[in-house]
């Protein structure tokens, strides 16, 4: 039996099974719940009280009655623990991100709090970002833009997608959506996943688990990192795995910066062995202006924006409000994180 079937934490202690209070930190970059989404939350949990919480974990009122926390990206581990310590009735944390390495703090684990995440919310925009970058590299777009800046008329030979192998490191929502979008282009898609014998994904050749990473690296023209950051996956892309890569391959990271040994990546990019890298996430964010990644001609740096679209905010609250209704009814919550696995 998996974690999703066990996580029954409701009903709440407020009117009609609603939680007495919900604490809400800033949800997405520059956005919060106290605009158009406030009514949606109150419709899902009538009679609850919404308490704004700052990104450093402080609130202007008592957190004594808080049963549920809607945790935004900016609420890191230490502020989260301070908040948890001041919310004795807290039972459930919903993270608006898919990765929860900064949510599963020792305090959260010790309290045995239920944690859910935003599984599926960002899969489409991130997969579109991945395909955009693959197409841009195949069509030589970075070089063409540079030639335009130089006012130089120099046609460049491109690569057709039907001749490209895309390697997915992780075959969850994001990996599966990349595979779906790649299908019409005729690219070969290979993958490694935690459970190689799980349900097959159309058009994807599963090579095995993490032990098959060297084989995937040797096969793939584009290696897409789409897996959670855990103790097992930290620095998964290191000198050894990069040495196994196909000459001229590109690494695309849309997951977590901690998956990559950044010094090893710099060495591989500078050596010319790798074709390049697309890096949307880093260990330190914002990436300091002194970072050498900015200055590499074969590295495309974006400011952790692969997830962004006009639709993600409404999907984020849709997932949360669906679970709020389940909480009121005492039904199992969806997208429950397994603390032992880290996702």
Structure description:
The chain has 343 residues and is an alpha/beta fold. It folds into 2 domains: 3-121 and 310-329, NAD(P)-binding Rossmann-like Domain (Rossmann fold), CATH 3.40.50; 123-301, Rossmann fold, CATH 3.40.50. Helix content is 28%, strand content 15%. The protein has helices at 38-44, 77-85, 106-111, 123-138, 141-149, 173-182, 213-219, 239-243, 262-271, 312-329; strands at residues 21-24, 49-52, 66-71, 92-95, 114-116, 165-169, 188-192, 204-208, 222-225, 250-253, 276-279, 299-301. It has a 7-stranded parallel beta sheet with strand order 8-7-6-9-10-11-12, sandwiched between helices. It has a 5-stranded parallel beta sheet with strand order 2-1-3-4-5, with no helix packed on it. The longest helix has 18 residues, at 312-329. The two termini are 16 Å apart. The relative contact order is 0.15.
So, the CATH homologous superfamily of the largest domain?
NAD(P)-binding Rossmann-like Domain
- How does CATH name the architecture of the largest domain? 3-Layer(aba) Sandwich
Q: Write the CATH fold name of the largest domain.
A: Rossmann fold
Tell me the major beta sheet.
7 strands, parallel
In angstroms, what separates the terminal alpha carbons? Answer: 16 Å
Tally the structural domains. 2
Q: Class by helix and strand content? A: alpha/beta
Q: Label the overall shape.
A: elongated
- Stretches where pLDDT falls below 50 for ≥5 residues? 1-5
Major β-sheet strand ordering: 8-7-6-9-10-11-12
Tally the beta strands: 12
User: Count of DSSP helices?
Assistant: 10
Provide mean pLDDT, rounded. 94
- Please state roughly what percent of the residues sit in beta strands, choosing from under 5%, 5-15%, 15-25%, 25-35%, 35-45% or over 45%: 5-15%
Order of helical and strand elements: EHEEHEHEHHEHEEHEHEHEEH
Radius of gyration: 22 Å
Assign a percent range to the helix content: 25-40%
């Amino acid at each position: 039996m998996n974690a999703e079937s066990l996580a029954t934490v409701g009903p709440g202690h407020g009117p009609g099974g609603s939680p007495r209070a919900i604490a809400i930190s800033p949800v997405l970059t520059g956005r919060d719940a106290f605009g158009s989404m406030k009514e949606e939350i109150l419709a899902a949990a009538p009679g609850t009280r919404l308490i704004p919480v700052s990104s450093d974990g402080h609130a202007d009122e008592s957190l004594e009655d808080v049963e549920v926390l809607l945790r935004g990206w900016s609420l890191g581990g230490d502020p989260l623990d301070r908040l948890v310590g001041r919310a004795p009735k807290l039972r459930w944390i919903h993270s608006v991100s898919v990765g929860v390495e900064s949510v599963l703090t020792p305090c959260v684990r010790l309290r045995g709090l239920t944690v859910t995440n935003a599984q599926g919310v960002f899969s489409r925009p991130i997969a579109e970002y991945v395909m955009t970058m693959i197409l841009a590299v195949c069509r030589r777009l970075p070089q063409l833009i540079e030639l335009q800046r130089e006012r130089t008329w120099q046609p460049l030979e491109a690569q057709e997608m039907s001749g490209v192998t895309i390697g997915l490191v992780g075959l969850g929502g994001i990996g599966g959506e990349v595979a779906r979008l790649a299908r019409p282009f005729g690219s070969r898609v290979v993958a490694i996943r935690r459970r190689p014998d799980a349900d097959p994904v159309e058009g994807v050749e599963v090579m095995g688990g993490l032990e098959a990473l060297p084989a995937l690296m040797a096969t793939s023209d584009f290696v897409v990192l789409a897996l959670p950051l855990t103790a097992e996956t930290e620095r998964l892309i290191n000198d050894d795995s990069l040495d196994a890569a196909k000459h001229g391959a590109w690494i695309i990271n849309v997951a977590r910066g901690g998956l990559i040994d950044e010094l090893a990546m710099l060495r591989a990019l500078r050596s010319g062995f790798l074709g390049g890298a697309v890096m949307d996430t880093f260990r330190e964010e914002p990436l300091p202006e002194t970072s050498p990644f900015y200055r590499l001609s074969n590295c495309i740096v974006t400011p952790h924006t692969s997830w962004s679209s006009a639709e993600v905010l409404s999907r984020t609250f849709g997932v949360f409000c669906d679970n709020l209704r389940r909480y009121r009814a005492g039904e199992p919550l969806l997208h429950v994180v397994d603390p032992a696995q880290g996702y």
